[in-house]
Automatic annotation (TrEMBL):
<feature type="domain" description="Glycoside hydrolase family 19 catalytic">
    <location>
        <begin position="34"/>
        <end position="78"/>
    </location>
</feature>
<dbReference type="GO" id="GO:0016998">
    <property type="term" value="P:cell wall macromolecule catabolic process"/>
</dbReference>
<dbReference type="GO" id="GO:0006032">
    <property type="term" value="P:chitin catabolic process"/>
</dbReference>
<protein>
    <recommendedName>
        <fullName>Glycoside hydrolase family 19 catalytic domain-containing protein</fullName>
    </recommendedName>
</protein>
<dbReference type="InterPro" id="IPR023346">
    <property type="entry name" value="Lysozyme-like_dom_sf"/>
</dbReference>
<dbReference type="Pfam" id="PF00182">
    <property type="entry name" value="Glyco_hydro_19"/>
</dbReference>
<dbReference type="GO" id="GO:0004568">
    <property type="term" value="F:chitinase activity"/>
</dbReference>
<dbReference type="InterPro" id="IPR000726">
    <property type="entry name" value="Glyco_hydro_19_cat"/>
</dbReference>
Length: 82
C-alpha cells in the first residue's frame, strides 16, 4: 500500500553524511581530532562504495543502521578510536 503512495521501504531519504555530521562524528570519536586514525572523510568515502548503507528505508531505519554500525566499531575497537 505504501508503495502505491510513492513510498518505498528502499527509497533514499537521507545520506549518511546528512545524518552523521562532522560534529556528531567527533562526539563519537573525540580522540580522532589529535590522532586521526579513522576520520570523518574516511567514513564518508567508504559509504560511497556501499550506496545502500545508511541510506535506505525510513529515516528511523537509516539512523538505527548507522547507530548500530558505530556501536559495533566502538565495541570491536575497545573504544580505541574514541
Amino acid at each position: 500500500m505504501l508503495c502505491l503512495l510513492g513510498f518505498s521501504p528502499f527509497s533514499t531519504l537521507a545520506s549518511p553524511s546528512s545524518i552523521i555530521t562532522v560534529s556528531v562524528f567527533r562526539k563519537f570519536f573525540p580522540s580522532n581530532i589529535a590522532n586521526p586514525f579513522y576520520t570523518y572523510n574516511d567514513f564518508i568515502a567508504a559509504t560511497k562504495y556501499y550506496p545502500t548503507f545508511g541510506s535506505t528505508g525510513s529515516l528511523d531505519v537509516q539512523k538505527r543502521e548507522l547507530a548500530a554500525y558505530f556501536a559495533n566499531v566502538k565495541q570491536e575497537t575497545g573504544s580505541k578510536l574514541g
